[in-house]
Amino acid sequence: MLTPLDLTTYEARLKECVLATKERRKQKFIPFNSVERVQMPASYFRKLEKAIGHDGLDLRWPSISFNSRTSTGIIQWMPSPVHETLASPFYGSNTIAIQDLRSEVAGQIDVVGNQRVGAAFAGAYDGSRKEPDVLFKYEGQDSNVLYTAVVEIGFTETYKELIDDVKLWIEGNRDIRTVILIKVEENPHYSSPTSKLEDNKVKDLGFPDYRDLRTSMVSLKDPNKSFGPLQINNLVWVGEMGVFLEIWNRDTINGEAKQQGTRSYFVPDNPTTELDLKLSDFYPLDATDGGNTRFPLTFDRLRLHLKTARKELAVERCHEVLLEIANREDNVKDRDYIP
């Protein structure tokens, strides 16, 4: 939900969040995958960038971005294991796809994660800032680097917020050929299973020390549901998940973002195994340079990665609760604690 705030209030709250994150990092605790979107004019965002930049905090997260078309500032906390794991197969698929290209063509291609982009946006999106989950880049013969495709993965973001991101990339940068949108849905939304228990009651449940948690301790609540709820010590830490993927490109008539084909649900199950993608969907390559080469990204691979990441997420959420209990036992004051 967008929250309009005056500049003074917003600056104070954002600085507090960054400082809290720095303290949590010292404790080896970082909040996962929380995204807040706040309405503000571009002038407010520039002042915020300057204010936060002069705090001397060299934190990678939270990431701060801005959509000038919707006048929205976006604060992204550290992505969850699920979020990051669904991005990783794109790197491997890109490596396989370009391995047989001529060396001079392959040398023009690169794919990176979480690179901040600002100068490439124009028109109604001039002044925007964004860090895509995966960014495909192409360096032309004139040494001009183009941003040609992106992957945006949403976990806590709403579908509408993800569509705003899709429009930012496609309508704000004429070089973008394709945007792949992946939306992860968790049912029910996560709430700590210990939220109504006092610390001593949690300890009585027989959890190991927070430093000894392992993914091997995670199990399916229902063995017949591969992506059903995950539990540790009979408490559910990850809900049932569903994931869908959409491919977007630019309408050749009006230049607006347009969905290509239909939505594909690949979790919990889908008989389709492979996406119909080729290198020309990601880079400005013709057939001679390998543009028709298959981009070998399969739903099976995405599902396999997600199964592991869900276990990691369960461990991290349980670890967060047990660490907070340990901190309170050691008289560590944490006024931001939310069970």
Biggest β-sheet description: 6 strands, mixed
- Report how far apart the termini are: 22 Å
Averaging pLDDT over every residue, what do you get? Answer: 84
Cα-atom Rg, whole angstroms?
22 Å
What is the strand arrangement across the widest sheet?
4-5-6-7-11-12
What does this structure look like?
With 339 residues, this protein is α+β, with helices and mostly antiparallel strands. 31% of the residues lie in helices and 22% in strands. The protein contains seven helices and twelve strands. The protein has helices at 7-26, 42-53, 81-98, 103-106, 159-172, 199-203, 299-329, and strands at 35-39, 63-67, 72-76, 109-112, 134-139, 145-154, 178-187, 219-220, 230-232, 235-238, 240-250, 257-267. The chain has a six-stranded mixed sheet with strand order 4-5-6-7-11-12. It has a three-stranded antiparallel sheet with strand order 1-3-2, sandwiched between helices. Strand 6, helix 5 (159-172) and strand 7 form a beta-alpha-beta unit. Helix 1 (7-26) runs parallel beside helix 2 (42-53) and helix 3 (81-98) packs antiparallel against helix 7 (299-329). The protein starts with 6 loop residues before the first helix and ends in a 10-residue tail after the last helix. Mean pLDDT is 84; it is low at 27-31 and 54-59.
